[in-house]
Amino acid sequence: MPVTELLLSHFRSHRRTALSFDGGPVAIHGPNGAGKTNILEAISLLSPGRGLRRAAAEDLSRRPEALGWKIAASVDGHEIETMAERAAARSVTIDGKTSTQATLGRIARILWLTPAMDRLWIEGAEGRRRFLDRMVLSFVPAHAEAALAYEKAMRERNRLLKDGVRDPAWYGALEAQMAEAGAEIDRNRSAALDRLAAAQANADTTFPAAELAILDGEDGAIPGGAEGLAGAFAAGRARDMAAGRTLVGPHRADLSAIYAAKGTRAAQCSTGEQKALLISLILANARALANDIGQPPILLLDEVAAHLDEDRRAALYNEIAALGAQAFMTGTGPELFEALGPRAQWLEVSEEAGHSRATFRSGT
User: Fold this and answer.
1) d(CA 291, CA 279)
2) pTM for this predicted structure
3) What SS3 state is found at 9?
4) What is the pLDDT of residues 4-15, one digit of tens each?
């Protein structure tokens, strides 16, 4: 499912950038602020959601024109366009037909790692849930629909709670929807962790294995199954009304990781070890997907060389090459990707006259 053609029009710092790829790794280098990450962000928007920066559509438009933006790509034989005109919502077109973001997940499986995720294990649970659900989504594209259904029903329930509505009939209908979607979310998450565990167990890798578990929310155990969730929602109405929000459910879960070889919680590991664990999980996710669907996902690895020594960088590049994955990697200098050599396309990004310029170069 490689990206073979990519066009950015008035997207972030790119006035117009057209690129062709051969399906292999791409080493993107250039100074900070040149527009390297913007290329990765554009590719991330070929999957469901708000992309690797979680930016609103209006924030993606190039300044100062603010005319709106457009991304066009050829992916796995499909022509994809996603765009937003000024002050308009983002739209998606696939092979000339208006489509939904959820459909994108059935065409391109995309995983990413960004510098902001380096603090994943030591910050709040929300980021870890998002990381978990991105992995789940790669295995089960329909996970997006379950999450949207759950969130929509929960927003309506929270509105009732804030307004002090006490009619059980109103709550019963919404809680039934939340319970059904929530049970599906729980099943998808558990199945994804099983696949990741198997992929790590069978891997020939220099990166450390992580033991993953889904933890209950801070307000107590998350009941299993739709029936258990529905009962918990009903039993918690009084407490939820006092808080003005729903305090139990899959939206309160957390992801735990232990550095398996040391038996140490990820939060207590060094910065380098935490980075290595994240890379290990991305690679395990990619291996599991390759086994499931017969081809690896697209990898977006922003500033991936940070906190990795020369040997670890070489090991990472060898694993990506062995996977046969199309990996877009960014770094400030070409020396960071020296071990890739001719296995990669080399893309230099610079800033000229206030906009980004991307030029393919020969490898070092």
Assistant:
1) 18
2) 0.89
3) strand
4) 999 999 999 999
